[in-house]
Amino acid sequence: MTPVFDSRQCTLGEGPLWHPTRRQLFWFDITGNRLLSRDATGPRAWAFAENVSAAGWIDHDHLLIASETALFRFNVETGARQDLCPLEADRPGTRPNDGRADLQGGFWIGTMGKKAEEGQGAIYRFYKGELRRLFASITISNAICFTPDGRHAHFCDTELRQVMRVALDPDGWPQGDPQVFLDLAAERLNPDGAVVDAAGTLWLALWGAGRVAAYAPDGRLLRSVPFAAPHTSCPAFGGADLATLYCTTARQGMSPEALERYPLAGQTFAAPGIGRGQPEPHVIL
After folding, report:
1. pLDDT digits 0-9 by tens, 111-124
2. How many Cβ atoms are within 10 Å of 21's Cβ, its own excluded?
């Protein structure tokens, strides 16, 4: 069985980020309005007054965090918050979801309706102080990740069960139309968060399937890593040599019977020796 990294239960665990200079994993409980982590002193947590879902690292002490009203700079040592720009602050029915930094120093963040209303979300990119909407009419934004050469991005609308791939220009902005990279509709699989390792393999959490599946750059299924929770939500590589695959999970939408069957649901897992990730790039403000 894959070891539990942190036993705190998240209603909707998401957004794991391995901070390369702190050598520390951060992640979120979106609907619990919490940022979580562990360091040498033990478990740590920060509470917010709104949903928070994803982060990129700016420097040793600062994260860029996406909330339901803003992208903000957050000091994990002092708790100081500095809002950088609004994020759908005029739309109280939406919240942030999946997000990740690209190799050019931009930060991609997806939004969605709080009740997953059809087409109410979008995918944005924040780069050097500018927030630009890239793709609209998204129901459940997910699978934001980037190839090791920085020339392509992946993303998905979980509702459509397709992971898309789009070319990027030298500054990291999309060019051309997105193409289907994975079509999981026939298997009725639900793509959630994803990360690409140093070899270009895409590791995709499958919501409801209790596993993270690895796909080659040509879309071939290579292997799957099972977890003792059905709602695997997002993977991240970290640890020594970036060889540990962390995965957040969720309890959202599970019946009492399912929660009894899967008592570890909502906890955060760590599978050692799985592969070798690429270091998460820092966000350029």
Report:
1. 999 999 999 999 99
2. 11
Give Cα separations from 214 to 79, 112, 166, 197, 260 (angstroms).
Answer: 36, 26, 19, 10, 29
pTM for the full model? Answer: 0.98
98 given a catalytic annotation: no
User: How sure is the predictor about 2, in pLDDT bands with cuts at 50, 70 and 90?
Assistant: confident
Model confidence pLDDT, tens digit, residues 76-99: 999 999 999 999 999 999 999 999
Catalytic residue among 29, 192, 197, 218: 192
Distance, in Å, from the CA atom of 15 to the CA atom of 247, rounded to the nearest integer, reads 9
Max Cα separation, the chain? 50
Which long-range contacts link 146-149 to residues 24+ away (Cβ below 8 Å)? 146/100, 146/102, 146/103, 146/196, 147/196, 147/200, 147/217, 148/103, 148/196, 148/198, 148/199, 148/200, 148/278, 149/103
